[in-house]
Design brief:
The complex is a heterodimer. By secondary structure, chain A is α/β, with parallel strands linked by helices. Chain A is built from 10 helices and 11 strands. In chain B, the strands form 2 sheets. Chain B has a 7-stranded mixed β-sheet with strand order 3-2-1-6-9-8-7. In chain B, strands 4-5 form a two-stranded antiparallel sheet. The relative contact order of chain B is 0.12. Classes of the chains: A alpha/beta, B alpha/beta.
Chain lengths: 294, 377
């Protein structure tokens, strides 16, 4: 069964319920490295360890029809044929007991959900694209939608910053060469950082509130990076959104904060990032709506 | 209760392979097992020879000697032909002249194993019992690619034409690549009135793949369980940390295997010494075979800002006009972008005029992103 949007206590309740209702003699929990799910008496396996021989062959020998496999937050890459997913498929072929937990139903697009669907269905429809009828007919799901919201806080920038932006933009395109084009928005987005900081320090900052930015370059003790987020410091004001959606998904897992106030400089790249996340939110909401049809 | 996918039916790949080999012996008088000296063919030959011993029959062991192979390959082939069950073996060790692509040199683009007049330079003397002259009718000899001349695969084609209703047994495994899987499964053969899904028809003969469902660890388990000797290079590669997909044993100079030259002086210094004298381009490939700026064509050399400019330079300075024209004609049909040009550079550097490493002729994905960002940022 696939559970979307469950927190750790709710996951443990589901695991206990499942264990009690069936003849389960062993529980193997495969979790994303950063998000372990401790369950008493279980074998804990990290996502990155799945492909190691020492883990793979051991589990191939040990997983049997009395084993419950818990796949916890394992949606880490959009490649449906990733080696780690293939290894997990091999374990799943040896038991019919599995529980799949994931915070959000996708990394980017609804297609990503098919990776979870493959886990649930032993990859029987591995070549099929996202097909709602197929999913609803063949997978059991419980969905708790997260209320994703992004609220824009307009931040004016100085003419010097705008000039710098134009200059940097031209330079980036001119000197791109063989480099990855995605470095362009990543770098341009950082230009408004000092203006956002000035805006906050000029009195717009709530002294009690923590802020989150891409890295430590702003050098303020009230600004954390995404990897440092904790539930205690939430809700954060978002100075910059991460480029990769999975980093924001991890942030939600760490802090429990699904969205929030986003500082939006009057630069084109800021608006592009904000719109990108609004579109992402829409896609996730659409997937929620689809999966809850029955 | 839901139906789970069941793999266990009381059989394993070894049992299944033995049954398949017994099936081959039941249906064919003439059986040829092709070997390369690698782990798969060692296992296949051992399985076939065990069955031959049980039935008191003799089978042919076929090895096409490309000359430019590891000494350990030769040791392994000798072990298979002469030590496992010599009384059951009809050795078919072919040491003939044919054209082999030399990816390491642009001036000597074709290497001729066992070339007449160069006996002093050969990597080793010919085997006493080897087949040294083509056993087929030369007047009807078939050549697939006239540009290249009589090549590696032509030897197989013409050799197989000497036989009818013969089983050519090959140690190919489906998991190695989709192409190999396709080779096994695309045209199931009908043998003895029944469809055989691990065999294909080949003219008047059959190609059979009894190990098609083996995984690499099945092969190693078999070797371990039966105490078989195996190719020494695997041990060196393992110690050096080679990934499984790169632990290959084949010719040392063609466009898919020249990387082996990088470690050859370390693994087999004597073979390397002889090879440097025997073929052109070896020392350069040994030094730069894994370098991003040369053979791998992953990074542009310092003086170039675009793959297209680099490609044009390589094309203009190609030393062989015949090959240059083939490549230029092919490139004319391709899209003109950086993504395609990088792959064309790889073909030029590796002298891949045969198109063994085909170009993915697609619009440049990077260009599309750049245009998108120009518009939106």
């Amino acid at each position: 069964m696939i559970f979307i949007g469950y927190d750790d206590p709710a996951k443990r309740i589901e695991i206990d319920k499942y264990r009690q209702s069936r003849d389960i003699r062993r529980v193997v929990v495969i979790s994303a490295d950063e998000f372990p799910l401790p369950v008493p008496g279980s074998d804990q396996v990290t996502y990155s360890n799945v492909i190691r021989y020492v883990t793979f062959y051991r589990l191939m020998q040990e997983v049997d029809q009395y084993t419950l496999l818990v796949i916890n937050e394992c949606l880490r890459t959009q490649n449906r044929y990733d080696l780690t997913y293939n290894c997990i498929r091999n374990f799943l072929n040896q038991t019919e007991h599995q529980l799949i937990f994931q915070q959000l139903p996708q990394i980017d697009t609804a297609e990503d959900f098919m990776i979870l669907f493959d886990f649930e269905t032993r990859s029987r429809w591995k070549r099929r694209k996202f097909d709602l009828d197929l999913i609803l007919d063949n997978a059991q799901m419980q969905v708790k939608p997260l209320p994703l919201t992004f609220e824009a806080v307009e931040v004016p920038t100085t003419p010097a910053t705008q000039k710098k932006y134009t200059k940097e933009r031209e330079k980036r395109f001119a000197t791109l060469g063989a480099k990855d084009p995605h470095t362009i928005p990543r770098n341009l987005y950082l230009i408004g950082g000092q203006d956002k900081l000035a805006y906050l320090e000029a009195g717009e900052r709530d002294r009690e509130q923590w802020h989150v930015a891409r890295n430590k370059r702003l050098n303020r003790d009230w600004v954390n990076t995404y990897s440092e987020a904790t539930p205690e410091q939430a809700p954060y004001t978002i100075i910059e959104l991460p480029h990769r959606f999975i980093e924001f998904s991890d942030f939600i897992r760490r802090s429990g904060q699904a969205g929030g106030r986003v500082l939006l400089a009057d630069l084109k790249v800021d608006h592009w990032y904000f719109q990108r996340y609004q579109d992402w939110k829409e896609r996730i909401c659409e997937t929620y709506a689809s999966l809850q049809q029955r | 209760m839901r139906l789970t996918q069941v793999f266990s039916n009381g059989r394993n790949v070894l049992k299944a392979a033995r049954e398949r080999i017994a099936f081959i012996f039941d249906h064919f008088e003439d059986i040829h097992v092709s070997i390369s000296g690698g782990k798969d063919s060692t296992v296949l030959a051992h399985l076939a020879l065990e069955e031959a011993k049980r039935r008191g029959r003799r089978i042919s062991i076929f090895f096409l000697d490309e000359e430019v192979v590891y000494q350990a390959t030769i040791d392994q082939v000798e072990y298979i032909m002469e030590e496992i069950a010599p009384e059951q073996v009809i050795p078919l060790w072919l040491q003939l002249e044919f054209y082999l692509t030399n990816a390491t040199s642009l001036t000597e683009t074709q290497f001729i194993p066992w070339e007449a007049g160069k006996a002093k330079l050969w990597l080793r003397p010919k085997k006493s019992y080897a087949i040294k002259f083509p056993p087929w009718d030369r007047s009807t000899e078939r050549v697939a690619d006239k540009n290249k001349g009589f090549g590696f695969y032509d030897v197989f084609t013409n050799f197989e034409r000497c036989y009818t209703n013969t089983a050519f047994v090959v140690g190919l495994r489906g998991v190695e690549s989709p192409n190999r899987w396709r080779t096994v499964s695309k045209n199931p053969a009908s043998i003895g009135g029944q469809p055989v899904y691990w065999a294909t028809t080949k003219g008047e003969n059959f190609s059979l793949y009894p190990l098609y469902d083996w995984n690499f660890h099945d092969v190693w388990k078999y070797i371990y369980d039966h105490g078989l000797r195996y190719h020494k290079i695997y041990d060196y590669q393992f110690r050096k940390g080679y990934p499984i997909n790169e632990m290959r044993i084949s010719s040392l100079i063609h466009e898919k295997s020249f990387k082996a030259l990088v470690d050859l002086p370390e693994f087999e210094p004597k073979t390397y010494d002889r090879l440097v004298k025997r073929a052109k381009g070896i020392a350069l490939a040994q030094e730069t075979g894994k370098k991003a700026k040369l053979f791998r064509a992953r990074k542009l050399p310092k003086n170039y800002t675009s793959w297209r400019v680099y490609r044009d330079f390589l094309l203009q300075t190609h030393p062989d006009p015949g090959k240059r024209d083939i490549l230029a004609r092919r490139f004319e049909r391709h899209l003109d972008n950086e993504y395609v040009a990088r792959q064309q550079c790889r073909q030029l550097i590796l002298n891949d005029y045969e198109n063994n490493l085909p170009v993915d002729n697609q619009p440049d994905p990077k260009r599309q992103w750049i245009e998108y960002y120009m518009e939106n940022l």
